[in-house]
Design a protein that fits this description.
about 800 residues, mainly beta, 14-stranded parallel β-sheet, 14-stranded mixed β-sheet, 5 helices, 72 strands, globular
Length: about 800
Amino acid sequence: MFLPVVFSCSALMASAANYYFSSTTGDDLRTPAQAQHVNTPWKTLNKLNTFFSNLNGGDTIFLKKGDTFYGSMTISKSGLPGQPIVISSYGNGNMPVISGLVPVSGWNKNKDGIYESNLEIEDLPLNMVTLNNIEYAMGRYPNYQAGGKGWKTIASHIANNSIADNSLAPNPDWTGGEAVIRKNHYVIDRNKITAHAGNILSYTSGTHYAPANGFGYFIQNHLATLDQFGEWYYDSSSKKLLVYFGSSVSNTFNVKASNINTLITSRKHDYISFNNLLLEGSNQKGFYLYYSNHISIKNCSIIFSGGDAIDGFNTESLSVENCSINYSNNNALNLSGACNNTSILNNSIKNTGLFEGMAGNSSLTFSGINITGDHNIIKYNHIDSTGYTAIRFDGSYCEVLNNYIDNFCFIKDDGGGILTNNNNAPVARQDQKITGNIILHGIGAPGGTNSSVSMANGIYLDDNSANIEVAGNTVAYTTNAGLLLHNSHDILVKNNTFYGNATQMILQKDAASVALVRDNIVVNNIFVSKDATQFTASFFTNSNATDIDSFGRIDSNYYSRPIDDSVTISTSYVDKPVGKINKFYSLEEWKSGYNKDLSSKRPSFQLSAFKINDLGKVNKVPNGNFDKNQPGINGFRCKTAWKNSGVLDGGYLQVTSLPNFPDSYITIPVGNIQAGKNYILRFTLAGAGSNEKTIGIYLRANGAPYTNLAQKVYRNIIGARHNYEIGFSAVKDDPNALLIFALNEPNVTYSIDNIQLYEANATITRPEDHLLFVYNPGNSPKKLSLKGSYKDIKNEAYLNSIVLAPYSSAILMKQN
């Protein structure tokens, strides 16, 4: 029985045929027999599409290198297991190009700076226009460079049908254009404007998400938006492309527009292999795979995709390897439904979702990789410059391993470098691993929202995420959390390094989810805050303080903030009837307060926040020693009383926060504060009782919007008196500034004295002069040269060099 089987397979393999295509030397009138020879190829993709159903498993389509094939390819036949139908290349030179771009020429002047050319677009809307091989976005009003980063503000709205803007003029009439609306932090919708009356725009919504007052919008896809070089608008009624060239000569530019929605489509066909191809200029999708299994895309490039580079739905066993994906307006890979057994390996994914008005309508847009399914692996990918989340995966038995992610969440935020979300599903997913990734520069995108807070996270485990191992990752320089466990449970976090994030780790339970934060294990991690404004860890709950006790086991970690290590851990909880209470701790206070991190350490390495070269002569707080009652000091939700004897020196000010209020503060006038100047604050503080409390100190403007003029600094209120010295670097001006002492607890009494605030000649310590963060995003060990002697967080010494393992990092502290 064995020999006939071998003979049968060999005979089948021998019957495989090769077919050649060349757009320069081909001829579609040739016979199939002729097309099997390299010297007599066919010419067009249309010929391939008509012949495709005649192919058999093991057959190969060869496209000639250096040639460009305009049009689309439709897969209409499946290959066989072990014998896929292959589409590849032959000859010498660059990869063959499958292109949806058509040249646009013959420009005529429309009006000042704007030129028009005839262009017939088969499938609207137009989403891809390039000038000299550079993509440009539709024109927009207002421009990005305008105030608010190009967002106008919604004053009011009616349902999801109209918005009103007090600053919107009745002319020009924006009817027919698009209102691009920032509906929340993670949704930017394109909405067709159906009417414009006064300051009201009516529209047809792109999604079910409603707008929010105070959030932003802009207008595009309208002739009146064109006022900057490269901005364009397609007039579907006259079938003309209009581009703003300004004073430049329009005909000197190579302008192309996409006229093919999808370049390669496979619907319910399996065992197809694509290799060594370049796809450019789809109006929507490069690849569209629908219920198509065992598809392989290897060594391909996909550029200038008007939507997704690869869009798959219910694809099983898809392999995307060694590919380059660049300039995708929506997502690079968008794999939805049950995309199981997918491998995404060793790809370069860059410049995804760069333009706010050019993606689709969904919360899952502007992303590098979106994938839903089980048994998937995402490994060795370099993902750079992603408008929203770099990698989002949802499914069991998935691995996200050894990826290098840089620059993300700069168009939308409330996202992450790596994100998963179980959407409050009743059944938790199983056995997910996020291992050995390097994630840098989560930027944040508050523009178009009602907040100035950036919300970019490194690793973001969202609602009801569970059964995930987060191990050996490095996350640095994000504007929110290095690691955010949001309503998540049964998470193992070990051997990770978090550095220079706004907060290194956040565990948060809020009212948005029924999932509790429980049974998490956080061990053997490094949490280092680079700046004095950053926290090493924060723990938030919408319940009482004891809920934080139940978050899980947290121990054997390193916590460090080399500049100002006194208060680096924060908590927030609800104390009825008072409300939300915010508290701040040193590592030692956190240990005693919550009985966690008992074996955790903070390195002895510390830096002075500043060096005083010359202290000014004038104290900006007259009578700061309170030798008499100090006029001008006001209290909010607190009682103030001048005391002429008692716990401090002679006269002093006693402050007691009121009951039933979560926050209180006193304001002290300090006069003119100037941006760029340094200020030294000295004061004496004493508490009433043995329990330590925390007070926040900062400089603030004396008028709306009450902007902070310098960073807020926290200090402990200790029972006995303590002298403090703080340095501020002002970032904003105010001629009538206030010095603020703020509490976040009711019924706290403290005394303050000897307040001195001087404009000083001081040198503010730059952490980067003393700390060195190094990492290796490669697959092999890497030796780095060092200038001198360093020690890491665990006190291991390095002289002149360090060797980093693949996908590892180190935080080094310069000695002497």
